[in-house]
Structure of tRNA/rRNA methyltransferase SpoU type domain-containing protein:
Amino acid sequence: MHCGCAFVPPVVSPRLPFETKISVSKLRASSRQLPKTQIRINPSDDLTIDGPEKSPETRIALPSHVNSITSTSNPFVKHCLKLRQSSSYRHTHGSVLVVGAIPIREVCMFQANKQRITTEIECLLLHEEAQIPQGLESLSTRIVRVTSLVMKKLSGVQSTESVEAIALMRIPHSFTDLKDDDDEDTVTTDCKKWFPSAHRVLVLDSIQDPGNLGTLIRSAMAFNWDGAFLLPGCCDPFNEKALRASRGASFQLPIVSGNWSHLKLLENELQMKLLAGHPATTKPVSSKLSLAFAQSLAEKPLCLILGSEGLGLSEQSRKVCELVSIPMAGEFESLNVSVAGGIFLFMLQSCSGS
């Protein structure tokens, strides 16, 4: 594969002024009138959630008295399932489903230790007979018990024995989506707000495999890079497979989703050098990755661009970047993009720890 680099009874919520079953149309009308309130759903209501709500401030939540769910047809379960399956639904509601105690714990530890803020967990779902996983006992968050069938449906895995917990979390403030500022002639966003520091930024050019994208984000976090910039064509970093591969790094590393106009703004404002990983067998390649090459760029702010698994670097990337290859003794055209990316990220990491 060519990677482009070398390398209970129903209870009516007090917020709703009526006592009948809620239709989809009435619910949406209510959400328009109260755009910053939570929509409370009775577990017995026959409500099908068939599309994203218009207001991103609208949340769908269980009534406060509900502490267990036994049916996979529960509207809240349907809501959570759609969060796991649909990128547009996730970003409309600003929520994401995180499966597994380990990534949940890693996100909580990072946010507590580094950012000194309370983890934005809306709800922690546990198996009805399970203990609270180690490391999550001190969380002051709502816990809802669910059956094995519900856990299986929400986790998306065949065996739920290894799934101790599922968390409904808010998409972190460290994620920035620039889709509303995409006119090349009117880009006015202050790019200095995207990353707390921008000495080393990983740029992903149409990386569509969520496993590769998650692994690259995790590697960028491990090697102290300052953030990731996702060009058009990349998969959602909060996709379930990307989250699993990143082990919670998508909640830790600043991530910006934008286009070439935004990247050009970042380059110009911060005087960043653009490098791109490219196979040595594909001409032209201007440099080879080495210790001396990395040391020559130690003080220079840079963006490293990695291309897609199938098509490699886009024409734009090849045009504006210095192309760099990884020397290989074996007769291989290229490495998997996450493997090659890991090598680049390690070799080009900031020695100053900035």
User: Anything to note?
Assistant: The longest helix spans residues 101-113. Residues 1-57 have pLDDT under 50 and may be disordered.
